[in-house]
Amino acid sequence: MRIDVLTIFPEFFGQVFDFGIIRRAKLAEIVEINVHDIREFTTDKHRMVDDRPFGGGDGMVLKPEPIFAAVESLVGTSDRPSYDEGTRVVLLTPQGQPLKQPLAKGLADETKHLVIICGRYEGVDERVNASLVTDEVSIGDYVLSGGEPAAVVLVDALVRLLPNALGSETSAENDSFSNGLLDYPHFTRPAEFRGMKVPDVLLNGNHAEIEKWRREKALEKTRNFRKDLLEGENGDM
Ligand code: 6GU
């Protein structure tokens, strides 16, 4: 997968993609991640990336011209119906569809080239949505000042789902959420720490019993903290 991130704050991304699974996936050429400064696609003297909203109001709106130029340069066209199959242009915005594991899985499975536009809280010129964007995505019901932290979240959620990104010792199938439940509790050595004991069932090597215990604990945790996941009333899974 190739990922191009468009942002007015490229320095924000610093080393954020240089650790753990994402770093490994980059080194293994499972994913290529490029961060682009929207300002580099301006052509005016002042290199303006935003402007005041027509109709008045607070804040600044990201201008369409440099974003169109960036997508034309990266995708080859700003005509959405002409995008190659496997090209998606995601706008990160609080108005988007909520990012849930099935959306991440769908994007990971279907996308060869992903362009991520980091919106500003105040807004992005609507003609970007109208012509360029294939998917509007939000990472949750809270306010961020911009899409940059959301881009890190989206990239992480996607990259770990790409074939071979996790390596043989782990698997995304066992992840919390991939089965619609929260994860079961985990323990490592020592078997007793400050008077707190690891449950006996995990020490006795009976794998059928361990599986049963984990399933029960996952259900219990989900019931206690995320009842909505069990009732499926969240449209989550
Ligand atoms: Cl994608 N952007 C902003 N600005 N705020 C958000 C968000 C995105 N997702 C949740 N809040």
Topology diagram in text:
Blueprint: E1 2-7, H1 20-27, E2 32-37, E3 50-51, E4 61-62, H2 64-75, E5 87-98, H3 101-110, E6 113-118, H4 126-131, E7 135-138, H5 148-159, E8 192-193, E9 196-197, H6 207-225, H7 227-231
Parallel strand pairs: 1-2, 1-6, 5-6, 5-7
Antiparallel strand pairs: 3-4, 8-9
Helix pairs in contact: 3-5
The structure holds 6-chloroguanine.
Can you give me a brief rundown of this structure?
The protein is of the alpha/beta class and 237 residues long.
Largest sheet: 5 strands, parallel
How far do the termini sit from each other?
Answer: 24 Å
Bound molecules: 6-chloroguanine
**Radius of gyration from the alpha-carbon trace, in angstroms:** 21 Å
Outline type = elongated
Please give the count of helices. 7
Relative strand content: 15-25%
Taking pLDDT < 50 over at least 5 consecutive residues as the criterion, the unreliable ranges are: none
| Overall pLDDT level | 95
Please write the string of helix (H) and strand (E) elements.
Answer: EHEEEHEHEHEHEEHH
Structural class: alpha/beta
Strand order, biggest sheet?
Answer: 2-1-6-5-7
Number of DSSP-assigned strands: 9
Helicity range: 25-40%
